[in-house]
Amino acid sequence: MIYTVGEAAKVLDVAPSTIRYYDKEGLLPFVERSGGGIRVFKEKDFDWLLIIECLKKSGLQIKDIKRFIDMALKGDETIDERLELFQNQRKKVIKQMEELQQTLDTLDYKCWYYETAKQAGTTAVHDHLSVEDIPEHLRSAKENLDRLHRRG
Amino acid sequence: MIYTVGEAAKVLDVAPSTIRYYDKEGLLPFVERSGGGIRVFKEKDFDWLLIIECLKKSGLQIKDIKRFIDMALKGDETIDERLELFQNQRKKVIKQMEELQQTLDTLDYKCWYYETAKQAGTTAVHDHLSVEDIPEHLRSAKENLDRLHRRG
DNA sequence: CCTTGACTTAAAGTTCACTTTAAGTTGTAT
DNA sequence: ATACAACTTAAAGTGAACTTTAAGTCAAGG
After folding, report:
1. What is the spatial distance, in angstroms and rounded to an integer, between the CA atom of A36 and the C1' atom of D1?
2. Would you tell me how many other CB atoms lie within 10 Å of the CB of residue A134?
3. Residue B105: its H or E element
4. A81 vs B: CB within 8 A
5. Rounded Cα–Cα distance for residues A127 and A143 (Å)
6. Is B100's CB within 8 Å of A101's CB?
7. Where are the alpha helices (DSSP H) in chain A?
8. CA A152 and chain centroid, separation
9. B151 pLDDT exceeds 70?
10. How many Å apart are CA A53 and CA A59, to the nearest integer?
C-alpha cells in the first residue's frame, strides 16, 4: 500500500502542507519519489512519522528532530546518543506532567471558588472564609496561590 | 510592601518586558502608577498575576485571558461565565495530561528499544523480536506505534 | 545638584511552526 | 486527447508571545 502526501496527511490527521514543511526541513529524507517527482509514502514511512509526532509532542523543536533523524540514518554508531535523547525527553515530559498537575489543582480550586460564589450570588462569600471552609483536597492549591503573601 | 516591575518580575521569575507586554495587552488594568507614571505592584496584584499564570499554563491565549480579566472587573454578574471558563480549562488540562501520558508511554518504549539495542550493539536485535520479548507494560505503546500497519 | 540604574513608551524585530499563494506539473479518468 | 484534481516548488504571509531598541523620564544616594 502506498500513499500520496494528501492521503498520508489524512491518516495522520494533519495538513498536507505540514508534511511538505517537515520534508523541506529535512525530517523526511527517507520518503521516496515517483518518476514525476511526487512523494510516495510507504508503510515504513509511517513508523518514522509517528516517532516524529511523539518527539514533537514531547516538546522537541523541528531542528532537533532533524538532528535525531540524521543520527538514526547514521546507524548503530549513534545508538547511545539516541538513547540519551529519549531519556531526556522522557524526563522533560514527566516534568511537564507535574506542572500540569499543579495547574489542574489551581483550576480545581478556582472551580470550587466560583461554584461557591455562584450559590451565594457573590464572590464576597470568600472574604470571611477560613481554611476549614475550604474542601481539604483544595487547601494546598489555595495555599500555593497565597504563598507570595508570606514573602519578605 | 510594594514592588516595581523589575522586582515583581523577579518574584514571578519572568522578564520585566513580559509584564509590560501583559499590561499593554490589557491584562493588568488593576496595577496602579506612581505620580511619575511608574507601575506600583501591591500584594493583591500578585493574586491576579498567579491566576493569569495558571490560565496561561492551561493553554489560554492572552486575548482570552484579557476577556477573563474584563469579566472579573465587571463583578458578580459574570460569576457564571467565569465558572464556565475554569471548568472548560480544567477539561482541557485533563485532556492534555492524557495526551502527555500517551507520549510518555511511547518514550518509555523507545528508551527500552535503545537500551536493548545498546546492549546488543545494534538496533537489528529488534528485527526478530516477538511480542513476548517486549516488557509487558510497553506492549500497548508498541502496538500503538504499529497501529497504522493494520489499516485498509 | 548630579549621577546612575531602573523605569517609561512606541515601534520594530525575533522565533517558531506552519499556511497560503502563485505558477507550473503529474497522473488518472473519460 | 483533454480535463481535472492533486501534486510540485519557492517565496511570502500569518499569528502568538514575547524581546529588543531608541529616546527619554524618574527617583534614590552621595
Report:
1. 20
2. 19
3. helix B79-120
4. no
5. 15
6. no
7. 5-12, 16-24, 43-57, 62-74, 79-120, 139-146
8. 36
9. no
10. 10
How distant is C1' of C26 from CA of A58, in Å? Answer: 37
One-letter amino acid at B107 equals L
Nearest protein residue to C18's C1' (by CA)? Answer: A18
Nearest CA in chain A to B103: A54
Q: What is the pTM of this model?
A: 0.95
- Of all nucleotides in the shown strands, which has a C1' nearest the CA of A39? D7
- The average confidence (pLDDT) of chain A is 97
- A139 half-sphere exposure, CB direction, 13 A CA radius: 9
Cell representation of residue B5: 516591575
Distance CA A68, CA A66 (A): 5
Shortest CA distance to A67 belongs to which of A89, A40, A98? A89
- Rounded to whole angstroms, the Cα distance separating B125 from B111 reads 14
Total count of residues recorded for chain B: 152
The per-residue pLDDT for B5 is 98
**Percentage with pLDDT > 70 across chain A:** 99
Nearest-angstrom CA–CA distance, B112 and B120: 12
- Return mean pLDDT, chain B: 96
pLDDT of residue A152: 53
Q: Residue A102: exposed, middle, or buried by beta-carbon count in 10 A (0-12, 13-18, 19+)?
A: middle
Count how many residues are written for chain A. Answer: 152
CA dihedral sign, ordered B121, A64, A51, A16: negative
Strand D footprint nucleotides (protein C-beta < 7 Å): 6-10, 16-20, 25-27
